[in-house]
Design goal:
Alpha-Beta Plaits, Rossmann fold, 14 strands, 2 domains, alpha/beta, binds magnesium ion
């Protein structure tokens, strides 16, 4: 009996945490019109860790803010946890927690007060509030009674994550959460968000860093100029990008360059580093290391270069055209 009940309730869960169909936004101002979203159709599966990737101005925040109810759509539809944002705005809003891009916090509230006020706004009964538990989870329990203005940028960011979680939404959206957050705090923020995802929360993260999306997300959508360029599992998407770069630091760069190294057509930097661009489908990275060894030079360090988003768009749009 209990099992049947559980099975039924699982069956009622939506397959997709978020569904957008032809979502469109035109900002109108004195200066004219700006098409920020040009008909975006996108599904975010329940339980996924989803990356919405795109350069500045692509329309990521507009997409997020429409879902959050902060921006009014011009056209199209969106559903959060099955609730249409236009027809059932309250239910849609209750299903989502959004960590905004801007660090907009009232400087005279303490973290404890802020979370209590937020819980009140969402109608969370007093005995069901988890203020201290949430502050603990984001590493702010010792700052519970400090004024927000006394918190560092990283702490404010984590406080905004805490604020988005007070009503325990099944979907958590983070809009460029690592801007202005140092590496250590970034790691602890990700550790917390990963725990939430493992426990079943659907995570949507916007970023303009491919590496960040690549490391964290199981699915990635790419938007550029308000249009969806790609949407796939991370591995399938990266597999389509047949271009990588490694940076080699050698003990010395021989002059003339030995044939084995010259064959890689490297770009030589003034600081003595060598950049090799290659197609993983044609040559594995081990082939590059073999060439270095054959040239008789010692490899001091090896790192990868951030993949340029513009390159990716060019690749994806050209492969679509073929
Ligand atoms: P992203 O978050 O990917 O950087 P945004 O959604 O913030 O992109 O912006 C998409 C486009 O819409 C940009 O060209 C931006 O200048 C424009 N835009 C954003 N907000 C407004 C607004 N309130 N009024 C007019 N144009 C806007
Ligand atoms: Mg943005």
């Amino acid at each position: 009996m209990v099992q049947t009940l559980i099975r039924q309730s699982v069956a009622q869960l939506p397959d997709n945490a978020i569904e957008a169909v032809g979502l469109r936004k035109v900002y109108r101002s004195k200066r004219g019109e700006k098409v920020a979203l040009d008909g975006v159709t996108l599904s975010i599966p329940r339980g996924s860790f989803f990356g919405l990737l795109g350069p500045n101005g692509a329309g990521k925040s507009t997409f997020i803010n429409i879902l959050a109810g902060l921006v009014t759509k011009t056209g199209g539809e969106a559903r959060i946890w099955g609730h249409d944002i236009g027809r059932a705005p309250r239910a849609a809003k209750a299903a989502i927690g959004v960590v905004p891009q801007e660090l907009n916090l009232d400087p005279f509230f303490t973290p404890r007060e802020l979370l209590e006020v937020q819980a009140g706004m969402y109608g969370v009964p007093k005995d069901q509030r988890r203020t201290m538990e949430i502050l603990e989870a984001v590493g702010l329990s010792d700052k519970a009674d400090a004024y927000a203005r006394a918190l560092s940028g990283g702490m404010r960011r984590r406080l905004l994550v805490a604020k988005a979680m007070v009503h325990t939404p099944p979907v958590l959206v983070l809009d460029e959460p690592t801007a202005g957050v140092d590496i250590e705090l970034r790691q602890s923020l990700w550790a917390y968000v990963k725990t939430l995802n493992a426990a079943g929360t659907t995570i949507v993260l916007t970023t303009h860093y491919l590496e960040e999306a690549e490391e964290l997300c199981d699915r990635i959508a790419i938007i550029n100029h308000g249009t969806l360029v790609a949407c796939d599992t991370t591995s399938a998407l990266l597999g389509r990008l047949d271009s990588k770069a490694v940076i080699l630091t050698l003990d010395r760069i021989p002059d003339p360059l030995p044939a084995a190294l010259a064959a890689l057509s490297p770009e030589l930097r003034r600081d003595g580093r060598m950049i090799v661009r290659y197609k993983p489908s044609e040559m594995p990275v081990a082939g590059i290391l073999d060439a270095v060894r054959a040239a008789g030079v010692t490899l001091v360090d090896l790192s990868t270069e951030e993949t340029d988003l513009e390159d990716i768009f060019l690749q994806l749009t050209s492969s679509k055209a073929r």
